[in-house]
């Protein structure tokens, strides 16, 4: 690589470094650039979805701008696959960057935003950000706040019995930790002799819809609630890519090795408010993790203004082409209402001769 080109082939960068540092921790430069590219794609996708909600191309938006740093690092470290040998994910509706990092095509998220029948996650039946992917052990995301925490011990129990190093990852916001489901997860993951490999993640953006967290939480940190159950954990700056990567790595390593729960509280931003219901206007007094990482990579000599603009234009072109295609795709029909609601489905499928689940059998 020439000393006059950056890692993406752009001109004007004189310094190429093998790694990028944050405090005492580092990440390889190549990995940092890949994380940055994924963060840009996730941000551009979310911003286009907000426009769709305001233009009538979609009906409602909720997502994760401001959480890209932490969630991209999470998605890249998941042991991806199907079944108990791999990681199970019980996520919430701000985890778009996690799915993008795992390899989800942007068009699939946009299909869910437009509620088309081609939406592979819900066939146009669910809100955006409510993903489901059986091949990656991503369980269907629910709009009911925090129910994922009480489901997580179930998959973790299967993994504990199965053996191997697969873990269960569950993520939610700090407001939802007031729900009993959060306490149930701590209880069922720490029963003496039956501890479970659950990585409990709380992305703390400081708000529960419009209620400040500081008016609701008397504990200093959310992870303090795990101390009574012997759950180890840490608080991390979720806007710092390098710090987030290593916090996730430590948590995953502990769960895989010890087969016990671990808790991470990531302090993140909420850049467009709660959802389109509150206007989804850009919040200017919040820290932008994309800008922070952009500055760090620029100072390290890995990015320049030309490359930054190129990557954003590339992502915009990808998203606009996807939206153009999505808007031509079919919408769900009334006759689809029972498809994939009951099993087996559809009702006119050809069943095995020994199947005894049909009405009247």
What are the salient characteristics of this protein?
alpha/beta; 361 residues; 9 helices; disordered N terminus; globular; five-stranded parallel beta sheet; 9 strands
Layout: helices, strands, pairs:
Elements: E1 19-22, E2 25-28, H1 29-55, H2 68-77, E3 88-90, H3 96-102, H4 106-114, H5 147-162, E4 168-173, H6 180-189, E5 198-204, E6 207-208, E7 211-212, E8 232-237, H7 241-258, E9 262-267, H8 289-299, H9 305-326
Parallel strand pairs: 3-4, 4-5, 5-9, 8-9
Antiparallel strand pairs: 1-2, 6-7
Question: Which structural class best describes the helix and strand composition?
Answer: alpha/beta
**What is the CA-based Rg, rounded?**
21 Å
**In DSSP terms, counting alpha (H) and pi (I) runs of 4 or more, how many helices?**
9
Q: Provide the residue-averaged pLDDT.
A: 91
Distance between the termini: 69 Å
**Low-pLDDT regions:** 1-5, 10-15, 349-361
Describe the structure.
The structure is a single chain. This protein has 361 residues and is α/β, with parallel strands linked by helices. It has helices at residues 29-55, 68-77, 96-102, 106-114, 147-162, 180-189, 241-258, 289-299, 305-326, and strands spanning 19-22, 25-28, 88-90, 168-173, 198-204, 207-208, 211-212, 232-237, 262-267. Strands 3-4-5-9-8 form a five-stranded parallel β-sheet, sandwiched between helices. A hairpin with a 2-residue loop joins strand 6 and strand 7 (211-212). Helix 1 (29-55) crosses helix 2, helix 1 (29-55) packs across helix 3 and helix 2 (68-77) packs parallel to helix 3. The longest helix has 27 residues, at 29-55. It is globular and about 55 Å long. The protein starts with 18 loop residues before the first strand and ends in a 35-residue tail after the last helix.
């Amino acid at each position: 690589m020439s000393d006059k080109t950056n890692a993406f082939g752009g001109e004007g960068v004189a310094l190429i470094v093998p790694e990028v540092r944050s405090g005492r921790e580092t990440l390889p430069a190549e990995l940092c650039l890949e994380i940055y590219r994924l963060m840009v794609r996730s941000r551009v996708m979310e911003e286009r979805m907000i426009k769709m909600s305001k233009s009538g191309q979609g009906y409602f938006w909720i997502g994760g701008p401001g959480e890209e740093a932490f969630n991209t690092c999470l998605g890249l470290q998941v042991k991806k696959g199907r079944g108990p040998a791999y990681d199970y994910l019980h996520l919430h509706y701000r985890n778009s960057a996690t799915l993008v990092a795992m390899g989800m095509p942007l068009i699939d998220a946009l299909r869910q935003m437009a509620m088309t029948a081609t939406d592979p996650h819900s066939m146009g039946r669910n809100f955006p950000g409510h993903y489901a992917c059986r091949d990656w052990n991503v369980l269907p995301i629910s709009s009911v706040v925090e129910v994922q925490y009480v489901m997580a011990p179930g998959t973790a129990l299967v993994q504990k019995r199965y053996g191997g190093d697969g873990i269960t990852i569950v993520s939610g916001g700090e407001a939802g930790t007031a729900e009993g489901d959060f306490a149930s997860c701590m209880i069922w993951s720490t029963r003496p002799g039956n501890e479970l490999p659950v990585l409990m993640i709380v992305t703390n953006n400081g708000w529960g819809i419009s209620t400040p967290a500081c008016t609701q939480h008397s504990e200093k940190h959310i992870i303090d609630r795990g101390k009574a159950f012997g759950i180890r954990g840490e608080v991390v700056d979720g806007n710092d890519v390098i710090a987030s990567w290593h916090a996730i790595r430590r948590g995953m390593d502990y769960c895989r090795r010890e087969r016990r729960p671990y808790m991470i509280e990531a302090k993140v931003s909420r850049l467009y408010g709660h959802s389109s219901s509150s206007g989804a206007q850009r919040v200017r007094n919040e820290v932008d993790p994309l800008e922070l990482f952009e500055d760090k990579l620029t100072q390290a000599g890995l990015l320049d203004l030309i490359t930054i603009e190129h990557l954003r234009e590339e992502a915009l072109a990808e998203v606009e082409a996807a939206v153009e295609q999505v808007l031509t795709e079919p919408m769900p029909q009334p006759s689809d209402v029972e498809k994939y609601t009951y099993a087996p489905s559809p009702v006119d499928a050809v069943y095995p001769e020994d199947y005894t689940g049909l009405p009247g059998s």
